[in-house]
Amino acid sequence: xxxxxxxxxxxxxxxxxxxxxxxxxxxxxxxxxxxxxxxxxxxxxxxxxxxxxxxxxxxxxxxxxxxxxxxxxxxxxxxxxxxxxxxxxxxxxxxxxxxxxxxxxxxxxxxxxxxxxxxxxxxxxxxxxxxxxxxxxxxxxxxxxxxxxxxxxxxxxxxxxxxxxxxxxxxxxxxxxxxxxxxxxxxxxxxxxxxxxxxxxxxxxxxxxxxxxxxxxxxxxxxxxxxxxxxxxxxxxxxxxxxxxxxxxxxxxxxxxxxxxxxxxxxxxxxxxxxxxxxxxxxxxxxxxxxxxxxxxxxxxxxxxxxxxxxxxxxxxxxxxxxxxxxxxxxxxxxxxxxxxxxxxxxxxxxxxxxxxxxxxxxxxxxxxxxxxxxxxxxxxxxxxxxxxxxxxxxxxxxxxxxxxxxxxxxxxxxxxxxxxxxxxxxxxxxxxxxxxxxxxxxxxxx
Amino acid sequence: xxxxxxxxxxxxxxxxxxxxxxxxxxxxxxxxxxxxxxxxxxxxxxxxxxxxxxxxxxxxxxxxxxxxxxxxxxxxxxxxxxxxxxxxxxxxxxxxxxxxxxxxxxxxxxxxxxxxxxxxxxxxxxxxxxxxxxxxxxxxxxxxxxxxxxxxxxxxxxxxxxxxxxxxxxxxxxxxxxxxxxxxxxxxxxxxxxxxxxxxxxxxxxxxxxxxxxxxxxxxxxxxxxxxxxxxxxxxxxxxxxxx
Lengths: 447, 244
Prior knowledge:
The complex is a heterodimer.
Chain A: E1 6-11, E2 18-24, H1 29-32, E3 42-45, E4 61-64, E5 71-75, E6 80-84, H2 89-96, E7 101-102, H3 114-120, H4 127-130, E8 137-144, E9 148-153, H5 158-164, E10 173-180, E11 182-183, E12 188-196, H6 199-210, E13 215-221, E14 232-239, H7 258-261, H8 271-288, E15 292-296, H9 297-301, H10 309-312, E16 319-326, H11 328-345, E17 349-357, E18 370-378, H12 381-396, E19 400-401, H13 411-417, H14 421-431, H15 440-444
Parallel strand pairs in A: 2-4, 3-4
Antiparallel strand pairs in A: 1-2, 5-6, 6-10, 7-11, 8-9, 8-10, 12-14, 12-15, 13-14, 13-17, 16-18, 16-19, 17-18
Chain B: E1 2-6, H1 11-22, E2 26-31, H2 34-48, E3 52-56, H3 64-76, E4 82-85, H4 100-125, E5 130-137, H5 148-167, E6 173-180, H6 200-210, E7 217-220, H7 224-233, H8 236-239
Parallel strand pairs in B: 1-2, 1-4, 2-3, 4-5, 5-6, 6-7
C-alpha cells in the first residue's frame, strides 16, 4: 500500500539549490513502515535547516517527519530518553530541563529535529569538551524497506550505527533514538566576552577557554577591510551552580523555514558598506554591554532562536556558509592564509566564527582534533568564484569541509579531503545495494 | 475529568488528545495501530502528566472484545465525563461503482462502529454532567459522484446525533456535533481544495472551549454553514451539472 504524494518546491537553507519534487507527510507508522516494498527512491526530512540539499533532490520522494515528534520513553533516573526523530531540540530541552537534565550537544536553532542531528552528526557550543551528537546517541530505530525496523547501537549492528550517525539519512529513515542526557548543573550561565584583535589571537584564547568552560566560541568580523578584519569576541561561559529551574526549560523562538527565509526578493546585505555598517554597529553595541552577563541555558544553546532576521536579510539569493575543520598544528597558518585570501580576493564576506574541536574522524563525519572555522558570505557570483579557492586552501591545510553546510561543495572536494570517503561509499553500497535513500547531496557527492 | 477519544493517534483526534491532556484531563485513547497509540499515549503522559489508557480498536472490524476493553478502560479512570469521536476514513475507490466490501468498510468506520461505541459507553455517561461529541463532514451536505459511501455514512451519523440530542435534551448529557470543512490532515493531503484547509489544533481549541456548552450543531470553519445553505438551495437541474 502506498499513500498520498504531492509536489512542492524545496529550497536548501542557503538558497543555493531548489527544486520542485514529490513529498509525503506520513503521520502514522503504517504509512512510513508498512507503506511499500521499496519501489521508489526516497529521503527523510526533518526541520529542513541543512544548508545543503540533504533532504530532497531531483530523484525520489521526500518524507517529512514532523508528525513523528513524540517522547516514547523518559527515565530521568537513568538519564535516558527515547524520542521520535521529528521532535525538535527546543521541545526536547523543554522536557528534560525540569528534570535537571540536558543534552550538551545541540546546534544553534531550536527548530532543528533530532533525526537531522543524527544524520548530520551535528556539534554544539563546545565540541572540544563534548564532541559531536553521536556521543549522546545510545540506540537508533532505523527503517529500511529491505530490512524492516532494526535497532542499531554500538553493540547491535554497530556497522549500521556508524554509517547512520553522520550518514546524511542514506541508510534509511531514523524513526526514533535513545539519547543519553547529562545532569544539568544550572539553568543560568555566566557569559564572559573577551575582545580579540585577530583570528590567530581568537584561536589561541579559544583553545585556553574550551577546556574550562561549558561553551566557548568566537564571532569575528570577516568583511574584507584590512583595519577591521578578524577583530572580534570570544564568548565563553559556565553554569551558575544551583540555578536549575523546575518550571520548564522551553522558551519561545521565532519560527523559520528554509522557504520563508528566502522570501525577501533582494538581499539587504547589498555591497560591502552595509556589511561594514552592520558589523560596526554590532561591535559597538556589544562593547557597550557588560563583559560578564548572566544568560539562560536556552539563550546559550540557541543563539539564533530570536535572531532569525540575520538569515532573512540574505533574501532569495541566499547566503553561503563555509565550515572547515583544520588540524591544530595547521590552524594558525590556515587562518593567516585565509585572511590573506579574503583581503586579496575581497569576496562579500560578513562574519566568521571559530570553535575548538576534539574527536575521531570516521567516514564522512565532521569530527577530529582541530579548529573549526565558519565563514558567512553573501551568495553572489564573486562568492562562487572565491569558494573553490577556499577549497584548495583547506586541502593544502589538511582540513575537511562540513558537507551539510555547503550546497555547492563538489563531490571531488569531499573525496580529496575525507580519508574515508571511499570506505563510507563502499560500506553504504554493501549495506544497501539498491541505494534507495537518495538526495541531491548524495548524488552530488557520488554516493 | 475523564474523556474517551476514538481515533486519537492522528489528525483531529491527536490534536484533541493534546488539547484535553494539556487542560489536565485524563484520557482513554483508541486507535487502530498500537505503534501510534503507544507513542501518543507515552508522550501525553510525559508532557502533560495526565493518566492515559490505550485501547487498540479497528473501527472497520469492531467486535465485542474491543467494546469491552474500551468500556473497561473508561471505567478504570473512575467515571467518564465525555466521549469524542473524531475518527473517520475516506477511499479513492468510493464511487458509485465501489465494491460492496468497500462500502461496508466505509459505513462501519464512519457510522456503525461509532454508534456501537456510543451505545456501549452510554451507561457510563448518564447520571452526571457529560458530553458526547461527534464529527461530521461537509461532504454529507449533498450526494455527489465522489465519496459516495463516506457521505452517506456521515449523513447517517449526523442524523444519529440529532436523535441522541433529542433523546437526551432534558438530561445532563450534552450532545454536540461538528460539521467539518476541509481539514489539514492526511485525509486531505495532496488534494487541491477550493477553500483553505483548517488547522486541527485550532479546531481542538474550539472543541475544548465549547465542551460544557449546549452548542448543538456547529460548522468548522463557521463559514461552511453558509456554504451548506447555498449548496442545498441549488436546484437539481443545476446541481447535477456541477463537477466538484
